Task: inverse folding
């Protein structure tokens, strides 16, 4: 379908994978209130490690946007993402202390290391801005969709987890993800076939890594 924007088309085509990332048993257990708090603490410690690796990834994306983008406002959107991430790092430290999770002694699990290594591969100057911004959108969108669902009608999210869900599930973050999706679509529309297929493959990898990331909360190592 020519009329349909690329991202929407891919999400339809890979709906099963997308749903496994955005409706994972871990986040569904938050939503229905049955969540195991030790699983939540495991997620918290691991995500802090991920977020630290996410900082240089966004920095590399900013550099790509500056060099390659045809629209100045992309830089401002990404800069906003960096500002939000700065706040997020502080939030993780506060939240960890609230839950008595020691961040300094948290050991990154295999799925986390692999995801961070994948992020690092996307930081290479060889990787096109269009591919990297598609990955960035997907990484943010999975959290937005997952945590917004924990706050939607009929959810029984425990009070003490609502702030976490709000971080990624709030409307402002939803808007921001939408803007990122628009950037990715705009770039994809102008891209040659090889970049488009790389972006699609990258999107699928992100979704797979996100599923593996949620799986770590089970604590089976
Ligand atoms: C694993 N994916 C993971 N952690 C995050 N904090 C986000 C996405 C969104 O920022």
Result:
């Amino acid at each position: 379908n020519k009329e349909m924007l690329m991202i929407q088309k891919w999400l339809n085509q890979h709906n099963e994978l997308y749903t496994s990332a955005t409706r994972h048993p871990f986040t569904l257990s938050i939503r229905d209130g049955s969540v195991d708090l030790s699983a939540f603490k495991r997620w918290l410690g691991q995500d802090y490690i991920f977020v630290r690796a996410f900082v240089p990834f966004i920095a590399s994306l900013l550099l790509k946007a500056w060099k390659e983008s045809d629209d100045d406002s992309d830089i401002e959107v990404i800069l906003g993402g960096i500002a939000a991430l700065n706040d997020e790092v502080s939030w993780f430290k506060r939240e960890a202390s609230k839950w008595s999770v020691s961040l300094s002694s948290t050991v990154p699990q295999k799925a986390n290391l692999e995801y961070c290594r994948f992020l690092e591969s996307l930081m290479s100057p060889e990787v096109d801005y269009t591919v990297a911004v598609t990955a960035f959108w997907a990484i943010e969108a999975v959290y937005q969709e997952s945590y917004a669902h924990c706050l939607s009608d009929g959810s029984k999210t425990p009070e003490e987890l609502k702030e976490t869900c709000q971080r990624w599930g709030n409307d402002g973050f939803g808007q921001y993800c939408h803007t990122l999706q628009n950037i990715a679509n705009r770039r994809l529309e102008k891209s040659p076939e090889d970049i488009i297929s790389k972006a699609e493959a990258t999107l699928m990898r992100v979704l797979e890594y996100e599923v593996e990331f949620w799986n770590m909360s089970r604590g089976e190592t």
